[in-house]
Amino acid sequence: MKSLRVYILEDEFITQEVLKQTLESLNCNVCGVQSNAEKALEEIKLLMPDLVFLDIRVDGDKTGIWLGNQLDIPIIYLTAFSDQKNIKDAVQTDPISYLQKPFQEKDLMIALELAKNKLESSKELLIKDKNFMVKVKVNNILYAKKEDHYLVLYLRDGKKMIRATVQEFLEMVTEDFVQIHRSYIINKNFVSGFSNKVVKIQDIEVPISNSYLPKVKSELF
């Protein structure tokens, strides 16, 4: 998965800087920082980050929880307050995690992994199916096969076709996918067995080419 684009709502300058530096050291791209929830909402609409860190009590009339209620992207709360009401209100916004200040780097790392998992499991591709554009959940794709200028996506519930190269497809999906042949890409989550010649996806045998065998071994063994 590419670097997470992260936005921070935090009104303490020192915490802002420590959080920003720690996130960047963990391969995140901090795309914005704000201390006011209403201003943050406007910036988030423009920046469209993958993940937002929200302090609960910040400058202005609106709280981090108010902002959390406006968003449909993953949220991690970061606050010095742990009273029952704040926790209950925060839980209603379905956050990824709730970290208390001063935060520990290991807790931050765990929260980031949870966020990545949620983003990957909910990722969708928008593809053309006859006269309609339809959404296909990435985690429903078993494997893909190249056919001329198209890729046939073999799904758990059927097949779809997408006009894309192998490389373009790999850039669209998550790290759960690996190319095992010039014409085949598999979803590692559905591998039920493998040898030096084939990977078994449920009851289907997908060929491995010799040039990709070292990569397959490193990914699956």
Describe it:
The chain is of the alpha/beta class. The chain is about 35% helix and about 35% strand. It has a 5-stranded parallel β-sheet with strand order 2-1-3-4-5, with helices on both faces. It has a 5-stranded antiparallel β-sheet with strand order 10-9-8-12-11. Strands 13-14-15 form a 3-stranded antiparallel β-sheet, with no helix packed on it. Strand 4, helix 4 and strand 5 form a beta-alpha-beta unit. The longest helix has 18 residues. The relative contact order is 0.09.
Task: Detail the topology: elements first, then pairings.
Layout: E1 5-9, H1 13-25, E2 29-34, H2 37-47, E3 51-54, H3 64-70, E4 75-79, H4 84-91, E5 97-100, H5 105-122, E6 124-129, E7 132-137, E8 141-147, E9 150-155, E10 158-162, H6 166-172, E11 177-181, E12 184-187, E13 191-194, E14 198-201, E15 204-207, H7 213-220
Parallel strand pairs: 1-2, 1-3, 3-4, 4-5
Antiparallel strand pairs: 6-7, 8-9, 8-12, 9-10, 11-12, 13-14, 14-15
Helix pairs in contact: 2-3
* Strand order of the biggest β-sheet: 2-1-3-4-5
Find the count of extended strands (DSSP E, 2+ residues): 15
* SSE ordering: EHEHEHEHEHEEEEEHEEEEEH
Biggest sheet: strands, sense, closure? 5 strands, parallel
Name the shape in a single word.
elongated
Q: State the secondary-structure class.
A: alpha/beta
Provide mean pLDDT, rounded: 88
Unreliable sequence segments: none
In short:
The protein is built from seven helices and 15 strands.
